Amino acid sequence: MNDNQLLRYSRQIMLPQIDVDGQQKLLAAKILIVGAGGLGSPAAMYLAAAGVGTLTLYDDDVVDLSNLQRQIAHHTPDIGMDKTISSQQTLNKLNPDVQVVAVKQRLAGELLDKEVKKADVVLDCSDNFATRFAINRACVKHQTPLVSGAAIRFEGQVAVFTPGRNDSPCYNCLYQSDGEELVNCATHGVIAPITGIIGSIQAMEAMKLVLAIGTTLMGKLLLVDGLTMEINTMRLKRNPACPSCGTAEKQGLV
């Protein structure tokens, strides 16, 4: 690290759990973020500010006026711009040392497989079941840690899945792939700060995974109720018959 980096990250380096060695791990880390909206915005901004070396962003949408209430990486002049490009510009201003790879595309198929394989941690900040299950399958296949977040109305949730480690469940253990589509912000609304809370927790969990510190939300589902500010944690168990990680285990992948 150079002198500017030592100063920029000094408040983190002061923490005994991080120190210089931990900051070096962050600078070398590669994190994939799927979705540059309400969750992806704060998650990406905190990870960039913390000095994660490479952030790869995928989103196929453009900035709309209705996004600005909660998607804080985007600004009024960005309306009509690709969300990935808008996010990239914001992150570059926040920390020009971070390499931001921005791709306007729905991440799927072989490309999803390739990107998950390259990543140290994946953040699922998407808003639909199909993408969530596809991300989960790729993470199970490559044993890549997954930090999953969701927010709607006044509620949010976060879970961490570490396929192949500590008998971790996967997203498919929690939700069935043939279930109903998740409700979305466009039809049910969402309060702005709840996306910031959940996205920030996702960033925190990702950093803990990279640094191998603390206790992550692996095997847990963190539930946040913004109206009452009650935070509850549910225990999650791996489903031996899970169509994702159960099948992968039989094939010797986990």
Verbal overview:
The chain has 254 residues and is an alpha/beta fold. It has a single domain, classed as 3-Layer(aba) Sandwich (Rossmann fold). The chain has eleven helices and eight strands. Strands 3-2-1-4-5-6-7-8 form an eight-stranded mixed β-sheet, with helices on both faces. A hairpin with a 4-residue loop joins strand 7 and strand 8. 46% of the residues are buried. The mean pLDDT is 93.
What oligomerization state is this entry in? single chain
Q: Provide the spatial order of strands within the biggest beta sheet.
A: 3-2-1-4-5-6-7-8
CATH superfamily: NAD(P)-binding Rossmann-like Domain
CATH-scheme architecture: 3-Layer(aba) Sandwich
The end-to-end distance, rounded to whole angstroms, is: 36 Å
Strand content: 15-25%
> How does the major sheet shape up?
8 strands, mixed
Number of domains: 1
The top-level CATH class is Alpha Beta
Spans with pLDDT under 50 lasting ≥5 residues?
Answer: none
Give the tally of β-strands.
Answer: 8
Rg: 17 Å
**How are helices and strands ordered from N to C?**
HHHEHEHEHEHEEHHHEEH
Which structural class is indicated by helix and strand composition? alpha/beta
Helix fraction? 25-40%
- Mass-distribution shape: globular
